[in-house]
Specification:
single chain; 7 strands
Length: 232
Amino acid sequence: MTQTRTPINRYESAAAWREVDDYFSDILTPEDPDLVAARESGTDTSMPNAEIAPNQGALLGLLTQIADAHRVLEFGTLAGYSTIWFARAVGPDGHVVTLELEDENARVARANFERAGLADRIDVLVGPATHSAQQLVDANTQPFDLVFIDADKPNNPTYLDAALKLTTPGAIIIIDNVVRNGAVTQPNSGDPRVEGARAVTRDIAAHPDLDATAIQTVGIKGWDGLIVARRR
């Protein structure tokens, strides 16, 4: 399988993987102009190319609907591409709260939400996600039905702890980018992102009220994967 130059913030991806992603995305989950604009605006954020793939966005939307989730909490906004998938999935009576560190990323995302006609069902909280999440806890915020953790990876265990404080039994917690091009199996990688993935995996396994599995994926973003957990 042939490779091309790997974009920043992605892993090496074989041509066949990308072709399969494109095949299914084009047939099953074609992007509309608002999604395309949001994805392309990722180049204006602090992490170009870091947004989820279109077929993964569709998966998040389907999981939201399967879980009958009406309130979604997202750690990590960037240009708001995944946020749009969530906001559409929760419907006009649902709500998404998304946490973003950088003011400029939040500005880009809000413009995308306005363009997509979804700004009324999305709140963007700007600042360190640990602080924003704690503010939600302190405010006794209404519990969320689904939490998507896709922010700075070393803090994954902290975000899981916050997610548990902000959900109730039956809630879904999804953690992205846990395979790390296979490095998750390396106990001494020295990479804090890998260590964050390994630590949150151990925390989930040790928690008596969580059932979970992990799925590794290949595609336009290379070799990675996600954990899907459910509160008992």
